[in-house]
């Protein structure tokens, strides 16, 4: 890397820190810290929702899949996410927003204690938080691998550098810092992505290579299903991603909650869906074409690095690396914020009841300390992991496979068709899905990826629906909660909630339990 590249990377880090400092001025309490109190414009919420699904993993592990197997990586990953978010725009997005707007909910899991019961909320919170630590550790490893490839920086230093910078700006700025970073990421990614696309097309002979290169690529590179990807895996991913990207991945539920209203949350989801259907394909074209430019690589995970070093001029490699940082840091910041919300609002008050009685200032300090602790834990796991194969194992065999059982009770609990489904169905579906995953992951040595990803979520879905039908658990408070999510609050309801919050600041912004249960 040249001096100009390092200047670009240094400028990026300076901007990130400035965002954190500026965002701190907009955070007065935990409601601002976790959901920006619904003041994020719908278009910014939509862009943030879209960008929160990226990390450096795309340019390491997914680049390797594109190098080895071609366009299939778009179909099993980006396409399934885009379609899933489009479905969720009508089923889930408005309802997440109305939890905040009508009931003051600042954590995606806060409503579960009313919707089911406290034990259900706690098992979903603990299992989801543990999963997120592993997931974020994979993100740290991915960005460190890229740093090592571009600049020969040791993995330990790469993990430490990105982790500490991320910890700084999200700890100060909360969700505002997160969504503004996502927007910056969107701009950087657009410039760097188009620069790489144009460089590849110029090298291959112009725009016409978009439709002529397929005959020169290795056999099967143009097939939607190739390598380990099967039609069953595509369908399994579509099911999992529909739940995961509409709130099962808790940080994405926050994006819907931060929009001004339920109808605008739907618009933000539709924007995110459209971006997922179009933009990843533009990013994948250079990765798919890489065998024609840097053939014969022993390690396909280095393909994007070698492509950039081969084609991009001085300065653009720094911009590309800044984009990699931006991907990973934005996603980690997003996850850190929501995990902090879950710990601060749902876990800690159960273990230490006096946390619930903290003033707003004390709860905000507690949230920031929790953010530091979560990022530190994920960095520690990354430092002690073996980077060879760790990323793909986490992304597919652990996160994608276990996200379904954790998210089924959380997501379906929002819908009116399942309002008579109670805590028994929630707990059994969660436990059954994770038991099937454990058996396939550890007990069956040769289980396919389609089975590992698909069977746990299908098991949870069948158990949740089946038990709900066979043993309905009617509850007046539960019915009222679910029914209330069918429409945006009136101006009177919105003002009443705001007055309740402002009237008792020592509650730390926690009207969700009392209001939601009325």
From TrEMBL:
<comment type="similarity">
    <text>Belongs to the sodium:solute symporter (SSF) (TC 2.A.21) family.</text>
</comment>
<protein>
    <submittedName>
        <fullName>Na+:solute symporter</fullName>
    </submittedName>
</protein>
<dbReference type="GO" id="GO:0006814">
    <property type="term" value="P:sodium ion transport"/>
</dbReference>
<keyword id="KW-0915">Sodium</keyword>
<keyword id="KW-0769">Symport</keyword>
<keyword id="KW-1133">Transmembrane helix</keyword>
<dbReference type="GO" id="GO:0005886">
    <property type="term" value="C:plasma membrane"/>
</dbReference>
<feature type="transmembrane region" description="Helical">
    <location>
        <begin position="231"/>
        <end position="253"/>
    </location>
</feature>
<feature type="transmembrane region" description="Helical">
    <location>
        <begin position="364"/>
        <end position="384"/>
    </location>
</feature>
<dbReference type="InterPro" id="IPR001734">
    <property type="entry name" value="Na/solute_symporter"/>
</dbReference>
<keyword id="KW-0739">Sodium transport</keyword>
<feature type="region of interest" description="Disordered">
    <location>
        <begin position="499"/>
        <end position="518"/>
    </location>
</feature>
<keyword id="KW-1003">Cell membrane</keyword>
<keyword id="KW-0812">Transmembrane</keyword>
<feature type="transmembrane region" description="Helical">
    <location>
        <begin position="274"/>
        <end position="294"/>
    </location>
</feature>
<feature type="transmembrane region" description="Helical">
    <location>
        <begin position="153"/>
        <end position="175"/>
    </location>
</feature>
<feature type="compositionally biased region" description="Basic and acidic residues">
    <location>
        <begin position="499"/>
        <end position="510"/>
    </location>
</feature>
<feature type="transmembrane region" description="Helical">
    <location>
        <begin position="390"/>
        <end position="412"/>
    </location>
</feature>
<feature type="transmembrane region" description="Helical">
    <location>
        <begin position="424"/>
        <end position="444"/>
    </location>
</feature>
<keyword id="KW-0813">Transport</keyword>
<feature type="transmembrane region" description="Helical">
    <location>
        <begin position="42"/>
        <end position="67"/>
    </location>
</feature>
<dbReference type="InterPro" id="IPR038377">
    <property type="entry name" value="Na/Glc_symporter_sf"/>
</dbReference>
<feature type="transmembrane region" description="Helical">
    <location>
        <begin position="187"/>
        <end position="211"/>
    </location>
</feature>
<feature type="transmembrane region" description="Helical">
    <location>
        <begin position="314"/>
        <end position="333"/>
    </location>
</feature>
<dbReference type="InterPro" id="IPR050277">
    <property type="entry name" value="Sodium:Solute_Symporter"/>
</dbReference>
<feature type="transmembrane region" description="Helical">
    <location>
        <begin position="6"/>
        <end position="22"/>
    </location>
</feature>
<keyword id="KW-0406">Ion transport</keyword>
<dbReference type="GO" id="GO:0015293">
    <property type="term" value="F:symporter activity"/>
</dbReference>
<keyword id="KW-0472">Membrane</keyword>
<feature type="transmembrane region" description="Helical">
    <location>
        <begin position="123"/>
        <end position="147"/>
    </location>
</feature>
<feature type="transmembrane region" description="Helical">
    <location>
        <begin position="450"/>
        <end position="470"/>
    </location>
</feature>
<feature type="transmembrane region" description="Helical">
    <location>
        <begin position="73"/>
        <end position="93"/>
    </location>
</feature>
<dbReference type="Pfam" id="PF00474">
    <property type="entry name" value="SSF"/>
</dbReference>
